[in-house]
Records
---
Amino acid sequence: MKNRVIILFFLIGAVFFIFVILFGRNVFERFSDVRPMEKLPDSEVENVEKPAEGITAEEELSFEEKVWEQRIQNALAPVNCINVSGKEFGKLKYSGPLIDAHYHIANIPDGSPDSREEDYSEETRPLLGVNTKISDIVCSLEREGTKKVFAFFPVYKEIPTQMVEVVKRTMEKYPDKFVPFIMPPDNDGSPDGSPTVNAETLENMLAIEPDLFKGYGEIGLYARGDHGGPKGSPALPPDSARLIDIYPIVRKNNLVIYFHLGEGQRESFEKVLEQNPDINFIWHGDQLVSYGSGGQDLSDVDEILTNHPNVYYGVDELYGDVWLLKPEVSKEEFFEHFEDYESLLEKDVKTWKAFIEKHPDQTIWGTDRGGIALWSIDEDVGITLTNYARAFIARLDPAVQEKFAYKNAEKLIDER
């Protein structure tokens, strides 16, 4: 019996040994085929498509989304600052900080995603991501010594999310260079359009990125074409129903308002200033400035500032009271204009010095550049504009110079 048991165990062991011989090698090879992940060559790594910024690898962008994302990235692309110089205007100059309280930021291409890049190649106006970039503006500001700008960012009702995204990324990248104002026209190039969207649309735009914007404007309340330009939307009085609905939205979002008034809008404007004492307004433009043989008559502007502490006037009509930053003026003509700069300064001092010194806490400096003339945002132009402003500011009462140059603008934002 004992021998039979021994023989049985021997037979079982032999069968197991034969099983291992026949099948074990195949099993071992199957498991041993698992190898560590090999590193891709650098050339192949570079060719792997990376997800767009802000998009996780699991998300898939549509064709349209990819086009808009690329346009936004183009607007924020880095550039190499170039070393340029501008005109000088004598040894007497203000050397402190500057805030340019009137700077138009160009829009990104707003055409269909099917639009070809060459469709914009002949564009003569600034077009963000095509012929200028946010980093170009920053280069210019740093070269000219401008601390920051009140930046009027356009936001169109057809593509509000994309245009607000440009503002958001700009502020993430350059938080100390721009004070963002929302400028939302409503097809103002058309006779049935308006200089601004309605209250509901504005509120929806602001809700895309709450607390992003610090101001609302520039809103041109004048009739399009009143200076000989293309006809478009009619004048929008400050006390119009559309704007009356907007003021509570401005108050709710703690915004500063920037208007360009139209002809005959003084009474309407003062009515709104009285009704909204808790909202700060800025305005500019020559529609309330009359002209005579003795030059500009600022009496209407003077009285509005005297009567309303919640309003500021933006002075950008320097250079001998000649509007230079427009497509009809070439860059060469711009520089030629300053050849006899002493006579220009003399004229500007005569027009503006007493006015600014009478209202030292309600006047701010600006350039009104970037809107329609591409060359107006060139670095040498920016240096020339600010050098001229420094020469003018140096001729003001020393107690007023810093207020006009930057402190009043700074106060408007800090005390919101």
Note: DSSP finds 13 helices and ten strands in the chain.
---
Amino acid sequence: MHVLMVSEFFPPITHGGGETSALALAKALAKNGQRVSVLTSRAEGLPEKNVTEGVMVIRTLGTGKTSNSFAGNIKRLGITASIKKELPKLIDELKPDVLHALNITSMPGVAAVAREKGIPAVAHINSPLAFDPKGTLTDNGKERETPYSFGSFVASFLQSESTGRLANPWYLRYNPIAWCVFYRRWTQIRDSFAVFDHFFPISKTMQRWLMKYGVPIEKTTVVPNIVPIADAKQIKTNKIPHLFFDGGYAPLKGLPVVIDALRSISQKYELHAVGEGVNRATMKEQAKNAQVNVVFHGFVSESEHLAFVAKSDIVLFPSLVPEGLGRLVLIAMAAGKPVIASRIGGMTETVVEGRTGLLVEPGNVAAWRTAIRSLLSDAKKRKKLGMAGRERFEREYSAASIVKKVMSGYHQVFS
């Protein structure tokens, strides 16, 4: 089978964990004997075409370079037109059996070309952006329960302090043109659902939302992300427990909640935070004023990221929004590390309360303080939770089991 995947970004160009997981899936499918090609965006210094570990990567799409600014996201609106231009030519050249949209923003373009060419297509559903024009699936700090109309979106947008990774300043929040831009982009994604033959939601949470938008459960296969595994030689514990946070410095990722929770904890610890974001200086000042022991790191490579997880004692995932899955949780489980995560979205599926980690109400500082304190003071409990997490990872989230699920989804398309 020849699978032609489409992703707006692809490693080494990444804008989150989704691209890294996309590469892992492509390589795993190639190792399984499938022919795999990937169409993605041009990147300075990278060849237009190359083959890595059996995967052919073609970089001819045009898009914005960053998702961390409003201007960059405006430029990214051109990705659909670029896919419509480049993908038909590649289909004529490669003659693939199936198209696979690897990320949400590629879906409208892939759907349009699939309809035009009469070729089967599947879509990975790995972000709340598929169901919420703001990309958060929250209203007033709580997880949304029902689909959006334009009116309900505007009401939510007016109350939202964030849109995805970005702040929602007054000149966007009260701007009807911005409302229409956000909503129009999302309706193109939503309307593409009707074209795809099958969907790969990365969690049951994403699967339920597909069903809310009219996708039959029979057209879905839950496929968690394939994640890298830390080197066993690097895995260690520390005399003074190390906490690890990786969500970048966007408020919705929840680091300010953790800093407030640590304010009155007397046990010794070190919190290491990694990522990018314009709010880093603000959070650093918050930690300084609270006299909280935080080491702020910038962007780290995948190998560095895995080393941080391997050398941590507790991994924190305090997101305030319902993440599709929580990739960091799986990486921590694979390394045998206990997790404290928000009780929201996909994390409620990956973390088994009291067995592989602890679940805490998102944004509840007192509850986060209690959970962190309980694991800081009990090394045996940390070890027990971590071991159970590793066993669960090996049983349910291995690359081999995930490839099997993807191949099953492909075969359903042709049957």
Note: The longest strand covers residues 35-41.
